[in-house]
Amino acid sequence: MEIKPTTEELERAKELQRYENKWVALVDKQVVASGETMEETAKNAEKAGYKDFIFYLVPSSSVSYALPIWG
Amino acid sequence: MGVRFDFTPRSTYDGMKYVPLVDVLFSNVEHGKSLKIECRIDSGADEIILPAEVGIMLGITLQTGERLEFQGFTQNPVAGYRHNVGMQILGDAHTYTVPCSFVFGLKTTGLLGIRGLFDNYKILFDLSKKQFELTPIEE
Questions:
Q1: A30-44 pLDDT per residue, tens
Q2: What is the extent of the structural domain holding A42?
Q3: B131 touches chain A (CB under 8 A)
């Protein structure tokens, strides 16, 4: 089964790809700030006027994710 | 009643992948400091695993928790510390106190694993509709 991405999905994926291996601050799924660390990202988001945002660590696009983890 | 989410598209070297991401509010159970993190649902993870940075930002003294080692399938084991935190999936009103391990050197966003997520929610993936649904398991 092939699942075709929509134009909107392609745009969002492309936008996130610009921030790979960085933390980003998201508001309504849009990147409003980024940084090497969460603290730096929070500072940048607050500087841009955002108080309520969601952190996300953008994975590298060259890595296929397969990570079963056990303790 | 379940809560539906859209899979998130992710561009990779070998094409588009669809990832089950949800926004989660984590809180420090001692003083209530909280953060929102977009996390990946991962049925291969035994429990909830977050980068150590998240615990530090929540004001948790990580080293006071139970020390554990975590093993991916190729890398060397990495250290983590387990603490109880508050968890709320945004979009759902339920809140839970769950064990969560904060791992140093984790190069991915938070992973929502079996203990903490799958024991609190019934989860249905429907990739053909690019959607998945979380239904709280009522006690």
A1: 999 999 999 999 999
A2: 18-57
A3: no
Number of Cβ atoms within 10 Å of the Cβ of B12: 18
C-beta atoms surrounding A31 within 10 Å: 20
**In sequence order, what E strands does B71-120 have?**
78-89, 96-103, 111-112
Does residue A67 fall inside a structural domain? no
Q: In this complex, is the C-beta atom of B54 within 8 Å of any C-beta atom belonging to chain A?
A: yes
Q: Give the Å distances, CA to CA, from A55 to B35, B102, B118.
A: 8, 16, 22
Is residue B36 within 8 angstroms of chain A, CB to CB?
yes
Give this prediction's pTM. 0.91
- Please write the tens of the pLDDT for every residue from A1-23: 677 888 888 888 888 889 999 99
Asked if B51 lies within 8 A of A57 by C-beta distance, the reply is: yes
Whether A64 is in a domain gets the answer no
Q: Do B107 and A67 touch (CB under 8 A)?
A: no
Q: Domain residue spans in chain B?
A: 3-136
- Residue B97 has which token pair? 């106190």
Contact B113 A69 (CB under 8 A): yes
Contact across the interface for B111 and A67, Cβ inside 8 Å: yes
Amino acid (1-letter code) at residue B113: G
Q: Is residue A23 part of a domain?
A: yes
